[in-house]
Fold this protein.
Amino acid sequence: MPPTILIVEDTQSLAMMYQSYLLPTGVNTLVANDGATALDIINKIKPDLIVLDVMLPDMNGLDILAQLEPDNFPQVVVLTGHATKEMAIQAIKLGASDFLEKPVEAERFRITINNTLKIKNLKQTVTKYKNIYENGRYFDLIGSSKQMQSVYQVISSAAASKATVFITGESGTGKELCARAVHQASNRADKPFVALNCAAIPKDLIESEIFGHLKGAFTGAIANRLGAAGQADGGTLFLDELCEMDINLQSKLLRFIQTGTYQQVGSEKQVKVDVRFVCATNRNPLAEVEAGRFREDLYYRLHVIPIELPPLRERGRDIIEIAQALFIKIAKEEQHPYKGITDDVKHFLAQYDWPGNVRQLENVIRNILVLNPQEWIDVSMLPALPQSPQKESGNEGLVKEQHTSLPVQEFEELPQVESEVKALWIAEKEYIERVIKICATNIPKAAALLDVSPSTLYRKIKGWEENL
């Protein structure tokens, strides 16, 4: 849609001349001959750019500039035949983008307008993505780590294109949120975003779910159904867990992607739609191709812009940022008087491996808030958590090295006389501290080896500190 430019000029012949200057650019132009009319148009139409004469019959043009809303400020080019240095400085301070002195030539006028519109587009882009650098949020994605910044940059670069985005990552890393961000960052943001989980639909129904069906096409088809492809027309179709799709249906999907047309189940008519594809899987797609479960031609057709979402355990401080956002969100849903989390809780959240990634973190936080009505969350409220198999396998060598680097010392034998008896809490403390040392201060791992919850160890450590 071409931008709209409001020309505020009380001399009708000049206003018409400025309109003629802009005819080759294809923009829409409106004219106001006085300040009151200009303000009315600005409030109703909200033009992209205003060419503003200073000397108007009912007010000074700079007074109009001063009344523009800061949150929805259009680009303004001030135009006057009575220019002074002070007036130019005042106009710029009030938010004007440029200042032209009458009379102005057609080419200079057009260049100024074009440059100002480019500045507007640039400002919109910066505003749209500034949260990436300010607070680590990108639409519904949270995290300021380098890994996530790279993801945001790929999404931003790919947003304007229609190229297919292929998202991979472990279960629970936020692949659907990533797909929604691709949609929201694109020029299709005001069109439908339709998500379809290929693993959650029976194989004999998935074709109907994607392409739709006609009434009577099969048993149970009691009415016409549009299908996800038709619903997403003009927008984005997100196919989650794509590698779960039956290989016989993959050929139809390939044809749909190549031609943009499909047939509803029970119909011979070709339907054409404009759809942007985003796909995701928690499997290795190339391994699925090699195993014969995923078509190689479909893989290369879809694998245009790959995005790999990192697991939560590799995202550092993102864990705390995500947790705090989830605590606020879930506390509001559960009407919980949440105020914050202690440093011990932050330490635990950052140290745990989160094998279920963000999905697991969200479930743990909901568990904590539902079972504990206190305003401040401490480690005693944390539930017992399973040890991550990824961490065990990934750090096997590291753990082994830490074991062998410790001096080999056997624990003292059981006491034989009264003088050798220690207080139970001291003996327990020494044993637990040795296990924690063996685990390289990884409290969740030590807790798993001791068959207790991490919160139990944190409580004991806190108690020891109070006793000393």
The CA atoms of residues 80 and 101 lie 5 Å apart.
